[in-house]
Structure formats: C-alpha cells, structure tokens
C-alpha cells in the first residue's frame, strides 16, 4: 500500500510539473505570436493572443495548434491615401500550422468580427457641400444606428443660401462587396423642401463606400450590420498568414 501511495504521489507531482511547464510554454508562445503580429501588421500595441487546447506541448510537437484567438484594438486600415481605424477585430483561427523554426504561421480557417465606429465610416462619405440642384447644396454630417441593421445617414441641405432647420435623415442599407468594400446605399432618397433633386446627384451624397484594406493576409469581409456603437462586420478567411 505504501508503494502504491508513493507511486500516486509521484504521478501527481510529475503531472503538476508537466502542466506548469505546459502553461509556461503556452504563455511564452502567446507573447511571441503577439510580438510578431504587432511587427507584421504595424500595430501600435501587442494584440491579445490566446492559444487554446491542452496540452500545448503535444500540439507543438505535431506542428499545428488547434485554435488561436486574436483580439486587436485600434487597427489601422487604408484606402489609398485615406486612412481609418478599426476599433476592434476579434478572430478565431483554426488549424494553425507553423514552420520548424517558428518563423511563420498560417491558419487553415478563420472567423471573427470587426467593428468600425460611425465617425470612422463617415470619413468615406462626402462631407463637403455638393450642388444637387440649382441653388441647393447638400452634405453628409453624421451617421448613426437606424435600427433593424440599417444605417441612418444625416444630410444637411442649404437652399438658396439658407440651411434647412434640421438635417434630413436617410435610412440606408450596408453590404459587403468583393470581400474588402463596405457599401452604403440609401433605401429611399429624401426630399429637400419643395425643390426637385435629380436622383443621380442626390446619390452622390447619400451613397458611398469604404475599402477596408490592411487586414491580416487571407481575411475578407463577409457581411455588415449597423449597431448602436458602429457597424459590425463579420470576417472569414482561409490560409490566413499570422507571421512570417
């Protein structure tokens, strides 16, 4: 019986040491992945990286991690000379394979969400006054949640030099085009007082798009939905390059 107790104690102690070593190793790996992502994506701070699955060391020996969760705040995206900030990007990577020297890593598949505030999305709209009819100018002055997944576009109009008392609100739909572009399209065009406005000219104000470039290689936009704190974009990907 004494020998059995000694054996059990030994197994428990060794198991505890293995778990401790495993957790230490995973913590170190998470820090390394975060540092590489910061460098490769030009981030201002390290992202949050969580390597899931246990034990970690056996996954390393196999050369592939089951799942890695990544959270990035304040990621900069660009559309030519125009830049915007993605408030939050949360992604779940699956089947993350890495090279033998750990210098590169690629995820077989990825899902997640990204959030863009209305102030950032507004940068894609025409905020300078545009003449939409003789003596009538209009410009977009704000974006907000329109309910039911729609975006409320606020348009300020000036008729013969006089601004309308309140901005005109336009309910618009948003969609993803080509895996990289968020398009905003007015469901119904507004009336600016009694002045007739050509649809094409008005849509130059109400309709706009924003290219979201600069995401990790392999990740694309899937669908977009308006919410109280901005637009939430579902992202998907395959063969997503995390490092290297």
Automatic annotation (TrEMBL):
InterPro entries: DUF2993. Pfam families: LmeA. This is DUF2993 domain-containing protein.
